[in-house]
Amino acid sequence: MTTRHDTPDIFALSEIHGPVLRPGDPAYADEVTGFNLAALHTPDVVVGATGPDDIVTAMRWAKATDTPVAVQATGHGANFPIEKGLLINTARMTDVRIDPATRTATIAAGAKWSHVMAAAAPHGLAGLSGTSTDAGVIGYTLGGGLPVLGRAYGYAADLVRSFQVVTPDGRLRETDPQHEPELFWALRGGKGNVGVVTSLVTELLPLPRLYGGGIYCPGEHTEALLQAWADWTRTVPDEMCSAFTILRLPPIPQIPEPLRGGFWARVAIAWPGLPAEGEALIAPLREAAPVAVDTVEVMDHAALDRIHMEPQDPLPGRESCLLLRDLPPDAIRAFLDQAGPAAGVDFPLLMVEIRHMGGAMSRPSAVEDAVCARDALYFIDSVGIMAAPPAAEAIEQATQQLYTAMAPYGTGRTMVNIHGTPGDEQDRARAWTPEVYERLRHDKAVYDPTNLLRYGHAVTPA
Ligand SMILES: Cc1cc2nc3c(=O)[nH]c(=O)nc-3n(C[C@H](O)[C@H](O)[C@H](O)COP(=O)(O)OP(=O)(O)OC[C@H]3O[C@@H](n4cnc5c(N)ncnc54)[C@H](O)[C@@H]3O)c2cc1C
């Protein structure tokens, strides 16, 4: 059966300055493909937006034709396929303006953290990036934004001053704590549920340098390092940010020697204070197990990617996560049984991680937002690289078993940014508390009553 979404009248999109492409057009595949290759997008039409006007035109057309809309900047969050409707690609909108006087950045829809870091660094400023500066600022921040320096400064969403956003009625709106405060609330943690953001203004921090990197031990010492790290996290000041990771790295040239092809236990460190203090604080970790590689050093903030060493090239990733109330001995045991040396070197997940939460991330935002992870003291996340079956099945099974084993120690909730493939409504709702989810449903009914923005981590309108 042919629906009108199969043959959208794209002539109405002729005012758009960027490309407007349909399946079969030579540039279509490049336009829809993002960082995560696990989801193959096949929308009826993709618009390469060049500015807010293009997004307004696209949204008005979508409203007039009742066409569902999805947004992609980098595709780091592309863990579900967009099979119908309109995809707005914001990747061309990379403008970043720094105001050193107010220590703020105005960041366009398609800018990555690497763009912001490069623009802010000459002023001695930096933003609250996650573990990869290749991710888009807007998508990351709408999902709360769990930063590398989260224990020291809180969530990225907490620092946003204002948004410019096109709501599904096709109106370009400015929102901040004084103007449409409910819209402002829903955008900070509620993901892309109530509009397509064209830019945001965020505070920056005076952080030209930090002390950070990774302490890597051979995988057979996982238990000693994990136990030492878990004990140590109970003693450190709020500003000490760290994560424990088990890595089974493939033998590919993108991974530097001597890490390439190895099985490693790692503690990643990010300390924004004086390097000498940071060095003294992490000394027990360096003595906990034989250290094979130690990259912890004073670094430019813009070199943040060296801390977690996230992949820079597109790949088909299957991620998942769970917020943990605490990390008691039983939880450590369960984690080791699932992903430690006992699981073997052939265990199919590339990385399994526990991040230390708390600190500033447990304090409320100055202006209330929709971030729901403030009660978690730890956070577990994992990534598998989805090759052809049977690898994909093995990854799925290992992921299910890991999170089932960790469930007794969890809050029952995820973070929307790292939730992974969205399931049914009950599954998607796990990214928020029931109260926040209900409030988002009401906001969705106000701003997106016909559910144009229905892809991915979509909230069902009340
Ligand atoms: C290697 C890696 C490391 C990561 N590390 C972290 C981390 O440390 N902390 C963390 O919090 N997350 C992290 N993430 C998750 C990341 O924050 C999310 O995938 C986020 O969605 C990326 O945004 P994007 O715009 O780059 O991705 P995209 O795939 O382009 O967009 C993802 C979603 O964001 C929304 N979105 C994007 N742009 C807009 C817009 N202009 N208006 C409305 N909605 C929009 C849409 O819902 C879209 O589907 C990581 C992901 C990867 C792959």
Automatic annotation (TrEMBL):
Domain of life, source organism: Bacteria
The family database entries (InterPro entries) matched by this protein are listed as:
FAD-bd_PCMH, FAD-bd_PCMH-like_sf, FAD-bd_PCMH_sub1, FAD-bd_PCMH_sub2, FAD-linked_Oxase-like_C, FAD-linked_Oxidoreductase, Oxid_FAD_bind_N, Oxy_OxRdtase_FAD_BS
The answer to whether the entry has keyword Cytoplasm is no
- Cofactor(s) this protein cannot do without: FAD
> For the FAD-binding PCMH-type domain, which residue ranges apply?
39-207
Record's keyword terms, sorted: FAD, Flavoprotein, Oxidoreductase
Q: Which SUPFAM superfamilies match?
A: FAD-binding/transporter-associated domain-like (SSF56176), FAD-linked oxidases, C-terminal domain (SSF55103)
Task: One Pfam family, please name it.
Answer: FAD_binding_4
Concerning PROSITE patterns, the annotation shows:
FAD_PCMH, OX2_COVAL_FAD
Q: Which GO terms describe its molecular function?
A: FAD binding; oxidoreductase activity
Under the heading PANTHER family, the entry gives:
BINDING OXIDOREDUCTASE, PUTATIVE (AFU_ORTHOLOGUE AFUA_1G17690)-RELATED, FAD-BINDING PCMH-TYPE DOMAIN-CONTAINING PROTEIN
UniProt similarity note: Belongs to the oxygen-dependent FAD-linked oxidoreductase family.
From the Swiss-Prot or TrEMBL record, give the protein name: FAD-binding oxidoreductase
